[in-house]
């Protein structure tokens, strides 16, 4: 099947339920139409977000797609097969190929059964496995795939956190290797950091398995990051549909604009996060002398400058993370090449397993398309930058934080940009991804401080590298940025402004933020 051909379709689907609240004293309850002629298609490998307020019909649509509810009218097709009115026996073969992850993992997991039995049950119920030991082995494998592992097989649901229970729900859904997955509000009850972990897991599985994904949510920001298309529902009808960047950047329906405007945005002082994290116990600084350090994006620019500076400062070993073997060029004997694609979770995990002695991680790899947001040449550039600059760094932090903790603590250095605090229109898409990365750095700083891991953000201005081609004005040398970053790490500084441009902008944001932002808006 082509990726452009629909795997699952809904054609003019209608669904009505008895309205018992309006039932007369005598006679039947009137029927209330919840879905009013829905047309929807999802291709293999495509992620579609279904958004709308409570009561809009999005969950009912999801249940119809899985044939948990039989539509009142219309047609449902899976890979060309009409399953709208199939009986349960005829539906059974299709059930393996269509699975669901529920909103509340605690209520959807049997509290009297162990995790291994819960995850293995679909294999036994579908007849794909008849041997319980073999089913248990496959359950262990899929739990490992979702980030839990065989240690969880004999635990009960109440012994797990909310995020761990949701991973169990995902493991149970994918053990049959379905082609379509419905996720209904699966992160709404989780804290922000756990949400990010579950969404990253879901995105990786969707990509690796080629799943057609329907993601139901009221959180527009989640849908924008995770999905390819967005569908906006109101009172049982689709009022807007299109690519995520189009729906969110250029909404056509008034209701869509209301949803976007209703997203709560905090009005905080610039230094609020720093004030909160400064009160946490943390390392007073870390010297790189004698340490084992991994640098990503190490073959040129700031990354290569970091490698050279680390060697000159006496680092015991430097892992130079590169995407293509042999691209580093001549280097010191203390430097070892490590092939890492930070956008590929398997590559990141392999690197973490190969570099078990890392004490300091420097996340330098990233991309800059030098593009605006609204006037962008290709809106996909913004998605690519978010994929690399935000999600890639998140993957590295998740993989290497346990390694650094096991080695007695250490540090993570994230290369950010002053554009993440003060948007630069000339680099609108970079500014957006770096703003997300700045927030991520603040969050993991608080999370990892109790584990003895110092988290540092480096926010340079314009640096003389390939990423800033066409940027006007003076640019700092990569070697100067690397030196300032390592000096700040040794001094225990949380956020480092390593050059005149970034230090000046930071001072301006502190003294007069509106005027500073207005000045930067001149770079159009």
Structure description:
40% of the residues lie in helices and 19% in strands. The protein has 524 residues and is α/β, with parallel strands linked by helices. The longest helix is centred in the C-terminal third of the chain and has 27 residues, at 380-406. It is globular, with a radius of gyration of 25 Å. The protein starts with 5 loop residues before the first strand and ends with a helix.
Relevant terms:
524 residues, alpha/beta, seven-stranded parallel beta sheet, six-stranded mixed beta sheet, 40% helix, globular
Strand order of the largest sheet: 13-12-11-14-15-16-17
Rg, rounded, reads 25 Å
Based on Cα principal axes, name the global outline: globular
- Span of the ends, CA to CA: 44 Å
Number of helices: 17
Class from helix and strand fractions:
alpha/beta
Q: Which spans have pLDDT < 50 for at least 5 consecutive residues?
A: 275-283
The main sheet comes to: 7 strands, parallel
Mean pLDDT: 86
Q: β content, as a range?
A: 15-25%
Strands, total number = 17
Give the helix level as a range of percent. Answer: 40-55%
Topology:
Blueprint (H helix, E strand, L loop, with lengths): L5 E13 L12 E13 L3 E5 L6 H8 L7 E6 L2 E2 L5 H8 L2 E4 L3 H4 L6 H12 L5 H14 L16 H13 L5 E5 L7 H18 L2 E6 L2 H7 L2 E6 L2 E7 H6 L4 H8 L10 H7 L13 E4 L5 H12 L4 E6 L12 E5 L5 H10 L5 E4 L16 H27 L3 E6 L12 H21 L4 E6 L19 H14 L3 E2 L3 H21 L4
Parallel strand pairs: 3-8, 3-9, 6-7, 7-8, 11-12, 11-14, 12-13, 14-15, 15-16, 16-17
Antiparallel strand pairs: 1-2, 1-4, 4-5, 9-10
Helix pairs in contact: 4-5, 4-6, 5-6, 6-7, 12-16, 13-14, 14-15
């Amino acid at each position: 099947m082509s990726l452009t051909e629909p795997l699952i379709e809904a054609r003019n689907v209608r669904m009505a339920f008895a309205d018992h609240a309006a039932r007369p004293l005598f006679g039947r309850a009137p029927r209330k139409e919840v879905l009013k002629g829905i047309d929807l298609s999802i291709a293999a490998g495509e992620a579609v977000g279904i958004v709308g307020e409570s009561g809009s019909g999005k969950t009912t649509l999801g249940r119809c797609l899985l044939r948990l509810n039989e539509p009142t009218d219309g047609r449902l097709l899976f890979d060309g097969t009409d399953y709208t009115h199939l009986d349960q026996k005829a539906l059974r073969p299709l059930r393996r190929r269509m699975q669901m992850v529920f909103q509340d993992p605690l209520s959807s997991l049997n509290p009297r059964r162990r995790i291994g039995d819960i995850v293995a049950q679909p294999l036994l119920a579908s007849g794909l496995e008849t041997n319980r030991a073999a089913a248990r082995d496959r359950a262990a494998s899929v739990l490992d795939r979702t980030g839990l592992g065989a240690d969880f097989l004999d635990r009960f649901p109440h012994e797990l956190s909310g995020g761990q229970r949701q991973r169990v729900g995902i493991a149970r859904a994918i053990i049959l290797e379905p082609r379509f997955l419905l996720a209904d509000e699966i992160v709404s009850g989780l804290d922000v950091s756990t949400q990010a972990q579950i969404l990253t897991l879901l995105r990786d599985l969707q990509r690796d398995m080629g799943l057609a994904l329907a993601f139901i949510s009221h959180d527009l920001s989640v849908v924008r990051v995770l999905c390819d298309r967005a569908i906006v529902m109101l009172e049982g009808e689709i009022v807007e549909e299109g690519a995520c960047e189009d729906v969110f950047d250029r909404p056509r329906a008034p209701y869509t604009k209301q949803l976007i405007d209703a997203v709560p945005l905090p009005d905080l002082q610039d230094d609020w996060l720093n004030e909160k994290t400064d009160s946490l116990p943390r390392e007073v600084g870390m010297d790189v002398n004698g340490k084992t350090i991994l640098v990503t994006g190490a073959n040129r620019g700031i990354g290569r400058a970091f490698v050279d500076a680390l060697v000159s400062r006496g680092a015991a070993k430097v892992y130079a993370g590169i995407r293509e073997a042999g691209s580093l060029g001549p280097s010191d004997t203390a430097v070892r090449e490590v092939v890492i694609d930070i956008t590929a979770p398997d590559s990141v995990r392999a690197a973490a397993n190969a570099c078990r002695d890392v004490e300091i991680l420097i996340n330098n790899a990233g991309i800059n398309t030098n593009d605006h947001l609204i006037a962008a040449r290709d809106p996909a550039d913004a998605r690519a930058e978010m994929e690399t600059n935000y999600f890639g760094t998140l993957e590295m932090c998740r993989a290497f934080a346990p390694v650094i903790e096991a080695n007695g603590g250490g540090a993570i250095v994230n290369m950010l940009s002053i554009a993440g605090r003060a948007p630069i229109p000339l680099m609108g898409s970079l500014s957006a991804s770096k703003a997300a990365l700045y927030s991520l750095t603040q969050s993991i700083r608080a999370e990892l401080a109790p584990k003895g891991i110092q988290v540092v953000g480096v926010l340079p201005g314009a640096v003389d590298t390939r990423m800033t081609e066409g940027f006007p004005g003076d640019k700092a040398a990569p070697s100067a940025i690397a030196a300032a970053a390592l000096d700040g790490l040794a001094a225990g500084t949380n956020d480092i402004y390593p050059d005149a441009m970034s230090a000046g902008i930071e001072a301006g944001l502190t003294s007069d933020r509106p005027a500073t932002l207005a000045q930067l808006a001149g770079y159009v």
